[in-house]
Amino acid sequence: MKFTRSTISQLFAMAALATSGVAFASGTHAGGHGDGGETAIGKPGVAAKAGRIITIEMSDNMRYTPSNIQVKQGETVRFVVKNVGQVKHELSLGTEKELLEHLEQMKKFPDMEHDEPGKVTLQPGKQGEIVWQFTKAGGVNFACLMPGHYEAGMKGAIKVGRK
Fold first, then answer.
1. Which of 49, 112, 130, 137 could form a disulfide with 73 if both were Cys (CB 3.0 to 4.6 A apart)?
2. Is 145:58 a contact under the CB 8 Å cutoff?
3. Which pTM was predicted?
């Protein structure tokens, strides 16, 4: 078969189209498959529907205050996250497995920027927020995945009680 410039262009176009289908099918990093953002730990919440505000402070002693939180299944919470330390910290919601997988990525790419509803990275003295709806009973973990912070104990837990 003789390949012309047109044939090669068509092959590239077909290859791009084929791989784009895979990308669309895989969904978003947070949940995927067109599920409205629902994950194993819940889904991004709507700020206007938040029934409670919980302030969490992150400090250089590699701790969150508070580090243990209780919510109810179905509840939407607005977390106001404050970095009261002198170094960059983050708060990432997830299952333990998700957090450990992301920790490995952060070790390879420590300056990774997050643009996901269940994560906030803050410079010293800054504050941000996460609005989250806890749709499933059980446990949700949170942690700082900056290199060395998780290993130093910067993690917490949210207990989601049944309705």
1. 137
2. no
3. 0.76
